[in-house]
Amino acid sequence: MADLELFNSLTRRQEPFVPVHPGEARVYTCGPTVYNYPHIGNMRAYVFADVLGRTLTFKGYKLTHVINITDVGHLTDDADAGEDKMEKMAAEKAQSIWDIAKHYTEAYWADVKALNIRQPAHWSVATDYIEEMIDFAKTIADKHCYELESGLYFDVSTVEDYGRLARAVTEEGEGRIDAVEGKRNAADFAIWRKTPAGETRQMEWDSPWGKGAPGWHLECSVMGGKLLGFPFDIHTGGIDHREIHHPNEIAQNQAFCGCGGLSDAVNSGAKVWMHNNFLVERSGKMSKSSGEFLRLQLLIDKGYHPLAYRMMCLQAHYRSELEFSWDGLGAALTRLKRMVMQAERLKDAAAGEADHPKFAPLLEKFDAAISDDLNTAIALTALEDALAMKKVDAGVKRAVVERMDAVLGLGMMDLSRSDLRLRPKAATITEAEIEGALERRKAARAEKDFAASDALRDELAAKGVEVMDGDPLGWDWKL
């Protein structure tokens, strides 16, 4: 196997992966704030993290993966300003904040399952770690924090190289940070927020700095350190976390560990920091304030299998921007269907040995691609080439396909083409009506009444059904 190399956002270079603990890989992924449904841009981060975890398993490492659930402390502005997202949604919905958290956590988990994302070793829920957060804050408070009326603040000047991950705290960046009277530095951030006098929050706890709640940044430092130990191997998240949230996490980690500067990446709490780029959608429907925003269920309602979205993500490198369009999603679905058609022919074959000389070049191509900072776009072409290989033992081909797909996570051997034929919510015709029309069309063709046959085909097309003569599937939704 090729040596695995990953791009480290902290050093801004691609580096060989060398685990902290030989034979192990410990990974922390910033998870969702469960105040609303995740949009598909959010879910790109978890497809990326899943491929990373699958790759580490493929390379033989014992993987421990943690994904957190933020149910307190994340403010409406990621730059440490505004109301608590959870409290705000609970007030808008006139519901218990705990019910809000439960509902949206379960919705997120449903999307995780639909996208064939593997379960991590731990789902760490922020409110399960409040005592540990208070203890962590106590440990660093004397040397690195100061108290204001609104809470306990971290003094970023007390650690070396603050902001190196973001490369610089620019004036524009400083403008995005909450302006609080009394802060020593513009970039200082709250690690404990006091409940304002006269107010009561649904989520609040007693602390040495008054009744209140932890800051979002504190939560990830505490759960990462608690479950993986400092330093751990890899910390992942969306590129939006690279500018403020992760630099603040790193500062807390440095303070807690008594570490020096960030020229040695291990002092950050994780050896490697990895970030996926944005999913770009030009109509503005990526925003959760847009009404019918782009969540996975909307794609399903329109007749697109969720794994078409996973395919779409795999077709681009995780560090490149990915533009979403319905045409692009349709093309990804078509590509997935073509691959599933080829894989279906292997289902009756008992898996053989993947290490066969005929497949060696393709396996080498696949391994080289995935080892080159998770180049899934090239790895996909290796899988397609393996599926297209002719005059080879079906059992061997199946083993090769399963080995590659264990990394890409498309579930090729568990899918059928009919699984990918999802009924659009807006469809007015039932499958029974479609089958009836096809039977009438078949009879018309047998009688050489091609005018009636063509009319039935056009009638089905008008209702969003594509007739596929000579194809065993017979018909599909025309998206």
Number of helices: 15
Question: Mean of residue pLDDT?
Answer: 94
The largest beta-sheet arranges its strands as 7-4-3-12-13
Taken from the alpha-carbon principal axes, the silhouette is globular
Radius of gyration: 26 Å
Gap from first CA to last CA: 41 Å
The low-confidence parts are 168-176
Structural class: alpha/beta
Q: What can be said about the biggest beta sheet?
A: 5 strands, parallel
Strand content: 15-25%
Question: What is the tally of beta strands?
Answer: 17
Share of residues in helices = 40-55%
Describe the protein in words:
With 479 residues, the chain is α/β, with parallel strands linked by helices. It is 41% helix and 15% strand. The protein has helices at residues 40-58, 85-93, 97-114, 130-144, 171-175, 216-228, 245-257, 296-301, 306-314, 326-344, 360-371, 376-388, 394-408, 431-446, 450-462; strands at 5-8, 13-16, 24-29, 62-69, 75-77, 81-84, 122-125, 145-148, 151-154, 189-194, 212-214, 232-238, 270-276, 279-280, 322-323, 465-467, 475-477. The protein has a 5-stranded parallel beta sheet. Helix 1 (40-58) links the parallel strand 3 (24-29) and strand 4.
